[in-house]
């Protein structure tokens, strides 16, 4: 957590037994349960930068490797847990909080009714979406066709989101979206690149 003292982790007793989200003091204090779901796997918990909320992904507790899931958010004490939007699950894409803690960028699956995408990582078609945490209003950041768009990362000023795009020939490139103008730009590079990260100056 932003306080540097609270650890958040998921716990499950096995396939088909649901899961729980817990928080504990890093100094060895008592752990407390924040959320539980008997039918879902809770994963990729991420704190808002102001420390007031936690976002996480829920996915069906089944043997399906790459299911459609949901993006959820709750207050830091576990109250007001609520779903925000359908989201990709199983591929390992955590949601990303905006610097002002009011919006979340996430990977949305654009072929939710395609059974092969539940079983094969290469069959996923996705884009980056934004959701307002208080209103639940969702907007689309990117509009790639037939691509795997992944791993959104915010700039410190909240003006840009960087992300990776996997093309149909498996080439990976870096892009960034200007959230004010709505433009999406390919980052010039000398070859395939992935996994964006911003550096503060």
Q: What does the model show?
A:
There is one protein chain. With 201 residues, this protein is mainly beta. Helix content is 2%, strand content 46%. It has one helix at 116-119; strands spanning 6-11, 19-25, 32-37, 40-47, 53-60, 68-75, 82-88, 96-97, 103-109, 126-132, 138-140, 148-154, 160-166, 172-178, 184-186. A hairpin with a 6-residue loop joins strand 2 (19-25) and strand 3 (32-37).
Based on the model shown, name its key terms.
201 residues, mainly beta, 1 helix, 15 strands, globular
List the helices and strands and how they pair.
Layout: E1 6-11, E2 19-25, E3 32-37, E4 40-47, E5 53-60, E6 68-75, E7 82-88, E8 96-97, E9 103-109, H1 116-119, E10 126-132, E11 138-140, E12 148-154, E13 160-166, E14 172-178, E15 184-186
Antiparallel strand pairs: 1-2, 2-3, 4-5, 5-6, 6-7, 8-9, 9-10, 10-11, 12-13, 13-14, 14-15
Q: N- to C-terminal separation?
A: 23 Å
**Which structural category do the helix and sheet elements fall into?**
mainly beta
The total beta strand count reads 15
How many whole angstroms does the radius of gyration measure? 17 Å
Low-pLDDT regions: none
Mean pLDDT across every amino acid position: 92
Based on Cα principal axes, name the global outline: globular
What is the beta-strand fraction?
A: over 45%
Strands of the widest sheet, in order across it, are 4-5-6-7
Fraction in helix:
under 10%
Order of helices and strands: EEEEEEEEEHEEEEEE
Largest sheet composition? 4 strands, antiparallel
* SS field, number of helical segments: 1
């Amino acid at each position: 957590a932003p306080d540097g003292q609270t650890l958040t982790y998921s716990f499950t007793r096995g396939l088909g037994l649901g899961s729980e989200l817990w928080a504990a003091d890093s100094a060895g204090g008592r752990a407390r349960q924040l959320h539980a779901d008997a039918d879902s796997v809770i994963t990729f918990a991420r704190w808002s930068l102001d420390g007031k909320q936690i976002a996480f992904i829920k996915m069906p507790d089944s043997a399906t490797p790459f299911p459609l899931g949901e993006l959820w958010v709750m207050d830091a004490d576990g109250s007001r847990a609520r779903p925000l939007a359908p989201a990709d699950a199983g591929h390992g894409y955590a949601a990303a909080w905006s610097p002002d803690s009011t919006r979340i960028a996430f990977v949305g699956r654009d072929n939710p009714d395609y059974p092969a995408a539940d079983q094969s990582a290469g069959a996923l078609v996705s884009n980056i979406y934004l959701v307002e945490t208080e209103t639940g209003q969702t907007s689309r950041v990117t509009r790639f066709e037939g691509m795997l768009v992944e791993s959104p990362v915010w700039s410190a000023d909240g003006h840009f989101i960087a992300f990776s795009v996997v093309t149909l020939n498996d080439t990976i490139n870096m892009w960034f979206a200007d959230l004010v103008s709505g433009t999406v730009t390919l980052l010039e590079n000398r070859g395939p690149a992935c996994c964006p990260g911003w550096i503060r100056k």
